[in-house]
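explain this:
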Amino acid sequence: MPPATNGNGNGNGNGNGNGNGNGNGNGEAKEEEKKDEPPAPEPYALQRLLSTTRFGSWLDDKGIKVDGWVQGNYTASTANRNNLPITFNDRGDFWQFNQNYFRVAKEVDASKDEFQLGFRTDWILPGTDARFSIGRGLWDDQLKPAGRNGALPNYYPIDLFQVYTEAFMPNLGPKGSTVRVGRFATHVGYELVQGAETPFLSRSYMFQYNPFTHSGVWAITPLNDTWTVSNGFSVGTDNFFGDPTNRFTYLGQLKWAPKDGKTTAAFNVVLNDNNYQTNQAFPLYNVYNAVITHNLTDKLTYVADATFSHMDNTPLPAGGTGSATWYGAAQYLIYKHCDNLTSNLRVELFEDTKGVRTGFKGLYTDVAYNLAYSPVRSLIMRPGVRYDHNNTSRPFEGKADLFTATMDVIIRY
């Protein structure tokens, strides 16, 4: 299978799908809890602007929030032009407009012991990142050549990254359940597609070559103040309803998060028949993932993220078909120097045993560091460096090593 150069069936994960807490007790107890909560942050510019209009007042009355961000980056690289199999900032010495991310959401409040309805829709309008997040069966024709005369695929496509309705059902489970139906970000892994809410511009290999989204049903059920179990069913990984690639897929998560503890842990799975669909040139694979987060101090956080994935009957770059595995582990240190400055460090090992995901077999080493600086709340600037090495192949334009230096800028609105 060739290197993943678009989001069709390759993918990656993340985004939400993790549970949150629930209310209990009587109204007086809830009032006590609210007094201890920090004040809600001020809305960003778009929500503030809308609030001065009649339409904005209607949105406020309905509890509907509107926000987003724009993100762009410049990556200097030892590659001449192409940083693949690194995605998202895949172009060397080139400015990319990664995301114009826009979302509208009405969230349910799981602390209220009452039935509620909500929804969410997230768009990349447009952005180069959409080339990797677009799912099969949902506007994926944007990734095909635009004409007969050697025209290139659309470099700035649009992606409806998430679109779902959700309901909070207070009588489903010990503390109620939140049930989502639609296309939603995967529960697998630590990093996210959302550029403003993930620590690095350049994502880990585990993120890049595992699920991004699922289309189906996802139910989040807190068992108590510590344990949450989530279950769901989808039509596959990174595909949409009604596409010929649809296959029954089980989604699961078990999360341990003590209310006043410093450590959280989650075990995640994606399970299906894990056979490559030859007639559709589309991968179906199983994923097993664990994420552990620990606050070492008030300023220093440690994260461990490990994933194992496998697929059968897949075309091999060396020829023929067979089984393939890809797996890895990444460790993160996140240090908050002050309110507006954070350091992020990632060290990752990722093995693509047959080269079916990246196009080149071997053990990849990824070391990345950046600074995230926010002089004002709506602006994030992230200078960073990254070093990559493959111990077996030469994936980076014929070289085993790649060094990149990046600067990405995010403006939230």
